[in-house]
Amino acid sequence: MTVKYKLLAHYTAAAAALFIMSHAIAEETETSHGVHSLPLSIQAQMNLGRAGLMRSFSDGDQFGSVQWRIGQARTTIGKAKSSSSNAEYKDDTSDIVAPLTVQHMLSDGKSLLRLNITGTLSNGGDNEVQLDGDIGRMDAQYIRFLDANTMLSFGVFGEQTDLDIVDAGTIKRHGAGLRFDMISKFSDHWGATLRTEYSWGEQELKVAAGPFIRTHKPGDDHFYLQSELVGTFHNNDFSQIPEGWALHPVLGMQFQRNFLEKTADSFGVVSSGEVGDTENYGTVWGHLRFEKETSPGSWTPNMVVGMEQEYVNDLDEYVDEPTYAVFGGGVSVMERSGNRYELSYLRHQGLKGNLSNEAVVLTATWNL
């Protein structure tokens, strides 16, 4: 754990240094240029951000939560099948997530090159099956703003997972893939986001089997699809909304299908995944996000409450938790330069009490 916190300390120090430098540059820029003189890419980021649409693209909370649930469920099934224990299995984790993004505007003023590095420090709860470890991902994307209301993005990514199954073994996965995103604000009150990706990867599982170590290295690919419908309403739309605040109702869905290669382990036993060579997992959700609207450069508080419901889960054999309450909050700031910073907390709490995951997220995005 010491190494993890050292890495987090280095990240925080680097982020603080970049924040001070970029904030000073942004203040100078903002005093000499008006909003209308800003390039389209910055105008669009501010416009889509106020509409609540950039969050779905940049924070990745839902995607990360899905990956954790799938990984935890696989491990729990494997542990339960290999044990004679009659324990009631529960899963939970507390994570620190640090997405660090650098964007560079191209000469046309409408396009960006985006590089994102996200580190996740995962700490599992003290349960029958406990996963601790690190997850790293890097995305390189080309972003094109067709106008102030529309964004397209194409990219590639690489990912690395290194988890300890406490007192039982290890899980490693490395992969790479392609990603496509689209954002459209199609009316004064509504917009939509789309994210889809395909990852080619390989998993390495090592678990204790009596006095021996069982090793299995199957191919582990996945297809992921996520879409959200996001609204924006103010006091002049509904008097119940406080002055100076925006209400963002969100309706979303995600679906992931995993493809697991059938291979022989170190004992010569041929198998693929815990439930076969494919796994499906999908949820829908509804959130209400409240955000105070402030001028560029001012810190903005936000809060979110909602529900999430599974509609397919091939991995619920031992932990049945189809419905979650979602709640959290944070503070963020976006400058006229397009730089954005956020500190947030979000929790997905299973209503049966069998599964939960919470995360503190430190987000920083710089336009260079």
TrEMBL record:
Specify the superkingdom: Bacteria
Instruction: Write the signal peptide boundaries.
Output: 1-26
Q: Which UniProt keywords apply?
A: Signal
Mind telling me what this protein is named? Autotransporter outer membrane beta-barrel domain-containing protein
